[in-house]
Design a protein that fits this description.
361 residues, alpha/beta, Helicase, Ruva Protein, domain 3, Arc Repressor Mutant, subunit A, five-stranded parallel sheet, two-stranded antiparallel ribbon, 13 strands, disordered C terminus, binds adenosine-5'-triphosphate, binds magnesium ion, RuvB-like_N, WH-like_DNA-bd_sf, ATP binding, DNA repair, EC 3.6.4.-
Length: 361
């Protein structure tokens, strides 16, 4: 995983390109839409958020706190920036891992101006005392600043001007309920439809001055795991391939060859996805197997397998999450060109939504 300057971790960096450079990050920033109206896809979240912001504008007061959740690369940071832009307010950026002491957070909170937007990325990774301070501040616009140490320490209450917290998380389930409840609006981002990714890619190609054909864009869009960050990266890799091969148009042929070269298969699964499926089918006979065992088998952190690879594999029906662990579906066996054993493990289980929330770890 790549660590950003602000301490946040970019979990998708390795999926397509293990060596994410500053240059890549700059390009990513340049490709972010700036306004809600320019943000394709996520129609529901966009409409809901549009309403929340418009109502706040009419009331001339800061909107409720907003929580954005969803897998990496779907636009949480982008939307946070859009919220600040739509409110015409400056945005302060911090992240859970950067706030390890309540004092770190007190310093940030006490310097906020009225109406400002405080973006807390990876909010589920904040230290517990800071979490408590944050949810009290979100509710009462007040922090207790501790002066002194030990038994002589005193808490001095400090009033804060109203502000808006925008939290982002890939793991909403890990947020403690009191903190989650302080958010007046939660937007769940889901994987994008191919048509939306085509819109995003066409726009990106324009901004990066990449000539492309509709078929080329469609090929990339349909193999980007429903994720704009991956789509934009693949576009640049296909462009690289085209340039090196003396052609200046990103067309279907360039996309087909380049995506193959970068280990993105027909269904858009990348190396990590396939490693997970292969471990599950070949080493564990299709499961069920616990997350940490599976992660060890593919040489990754359990968190990476759970937040980066698994959500998409579950959504596309390759993996079934059961109370006893992860199981391969018939689709997974077929995708690897293997014959599934009969009956396929886990097939008698309910889909994810009907499962209890916590699973083995
Ligand atoms: N709806 C969208 N339209 C156009 N581009 C988008 C959209 N959503 C995301 N992107 C692009 O994808 C990239 C990743 O988006 P973003 O950084 O907002 O994701 P994220 O959800 O914050 O990911 P992470 O969980 O890793 O922090 C951005 O650089 C942006 O260019
Ligand atoms: Mg982000």
């Amino acid at each position: 995983m790549t660590e950003h300057d602000d301490g946040s971790l970019d979990a998708t960096a390795r999926v397509v390109d293990p060596a994410t450079t500053d240059d890549e990050r700059r390009i990513e920033a340049a490709l972010r839409p700036r306004r809600l109206a320019d943000f394709p896809g996520q129609r529901r979240v966009r409409d809901q958020l549009g309403l929340v912001l418009e109502a706040a504008r009419r009331r001339e007061s800061p909107p409720d706190h907003v929580l954005l959740s969803g897998p990496p690369g779907l636009g949480k940071t982008t939307l946070a920036m859009i919220i600040a832009a739509e409110l015409e307010q400056p945005m302060r950026i911090t992240s859970g891992p950067a706030i390890q002491h309540a004092g770190d957070l007190a310093a940030v909170l006490s310097s906020l101006a009225e109406g400002e937007v405080l973006f807390v990325d990876e909010i589920h990774r904040m230290a517990r005392p800071a979490e408590e301070m944050l949810y009290l501040a979100m509710e009462d616009f007040r922090v207790d600043v501790i002066v002194g140490k030990g038994p002589g320490a005193t808490a001095i209450p400090l009033e804060l001007p109203p502000f808006t917290v925008v939290g982002a998380t890939t793991r909403a389930g890990l947020l403690p309920a009191p903190l989650r409840d302080r958010f007046g609006f939660t937007g769940h981002l889901d994987y994008y439809a191919t048509e939306d990714l085509q819109l995003i890619l066409t726009r990106s190609a324009g901004l990066l001055e990449i000539e492309s054909t509709r078929e080329g864009i469609h090929e990339i869009a349909s193999r980007s795991r429903g994720t704009p960050r991956i789509a934009n990266r693949l576009l640049r890799r296909v462009r690289d391939w085209a340039q090196v091969h003396g052609q200046h148009v990103v067309d279907q042929e360039a996309a087909l060859v380049a995506l193959e070269l970068f280990d993105v298969d027909k269904q858009g699964l990348d190396r990590l996805d396939r490693a997970v499926l292969e471990a599950l089918c070949k080493r564990f006979g299709g499961g069920p197997v616990g997350l940490s065992t599976l992660a060890v088998a593919v040489g990754e952190e359990p968190d990476t397998v759970e937040t980066v690879a698994e959500p998409y594999l579950v959504r596309e029906g390759y993996i079934v999450r059961t109370p006893r662990g992860r199981s391969a579906s018939r689709t997974a066996w077929q995708h690897l060109g293997l014959t599934p054993p009969t009956p396929v493990a886990g097939q008698d289980h309910l889909p994810l939504g009907d499962q209890p929330r916590r699973f083995d770890h």
